[in-house]
Amino acid sequence: MLQLVHHPYYVSPAAPGSGFSFDKYGLVMIAMAETQLPHRLHQPEPMPRHWIEAVHDQAYVAEVASSQVPPEKARRIGFPVTEGVTRRAFLAPGGTWLAAKLALDHGYAANSAGGSHHALADRGAGYCIFNDLAIAANRLIAEGDAARIMIVDLDVHQGDGTAVLMAGREDVFTLSLHAERNFPARKAQSSFDLGLPDATGDEAYLAALAEHLPSALDGFRPDLILYQAGVDPHRDDKLGRLALSDDGLRARDRFVMRQARMRGIPLASALGGGYGDDRLAVARRHVRSILALDEAHREYARAQAAS
Questions:
Q1: Which of 103, 155, 170, 234 could form a disulfide with 230 if both were Cys (CB 3.0 to 4.6 A apart)?
Q2: What 3-state DSSP class applies to 194?
Q3: For residue 207, what are the CA distances in angstroms to 181, 201, 214?
Q4: Pairing between strand 39-42 and 2-5?
């Protein structure tokens, strides 16, 4: 059964003038209900503050905790940090961490939020406040749940914040396939980066993924994957440029899961980017991604049981 992490407070009222709609995270649960797929729902606790401060500067964490983020920092994030946004900012890392813990037990679990890969130590950016991927990876390793973690980031935007926050660590490998000409303008250096040209399309994208992901997994040999499964590479995404189809995204997610399961590596996914005026359509895209991962996970388990 699919293990799904969600909290009602993932949805926060949008601040006046904000272009970011938090209701996507509630719509994801509506889209999940449409599928009628049996799943077990898990509710996360807020990430304890000291684990966030292990990755982010204490002064910045204090600004977020008090909902007193200065206007210049709020502009970089893309919206004001209200009390509801603050509550959500502490819950999302807790959700990614919980999904990882569940994946270690079940092979796969999904967080219905998270993937905030642009957040840096002293500030947020690109709709990201705290970097849940980096926070979760650091805590999992510190508490002995994993020794080596690979963060696989297939959002259309480079995971620049994750790359910076995890730089120099031998126990965390950051991999990013993204649109080279998309945000951020100045790219960071991940353990492995591949910037793709606009309108790459399914065939070339999947070929690039097949060329680089297996060799990275075999070279680093992680015992857990945190997967930023952004759906903004889709051709209809408002901020995307890579022109993947529904089938292309599904093939991407199935490939990632198969590569993980072939090597016995548990995988936890976070939602990542997905943008458009039809927010239910975007939510359904996210749900199809989760279903593709779960389907590939269960197929592999059945094949192993039959052999």
A1: 155
A2: strand
A3: 20, 10, 12
A4: parallel
Across 180-304, the runs of DSSP E, i.e. the strands, are: 192-196, 224-228, 267-270
Q: Which residues form the catalytic set?
A: 118
**3-state percent helix, strand, coil for the chain, nearest multiple of 5:** 45, 15, 40
**Could you read off the pLDDT of 200-221 as tens digits, one per residue?**
999 999 999 999 999 999 999 9
Q: Could you give the count of Cα atoms lying within 13 Å of 151 in the half-sphere of its Cβ?
A: 42
Burial 2-18 (b: 16+ CB within 10 A, else e): bbbbbbebbbbebeeeb
Give the model confidence (pLDDT) of 245-259 as tens digits: 999 999 999 999 999
Sorted by sequence, the CB contacts under 8 Å of residue 6 that are 6+ apart come out as: 25, 28, 29, 41, 42, 43, 95, 111, 112, 113
Q: Which helix (H) or strand (E) holds 42?
A: strand 39-42
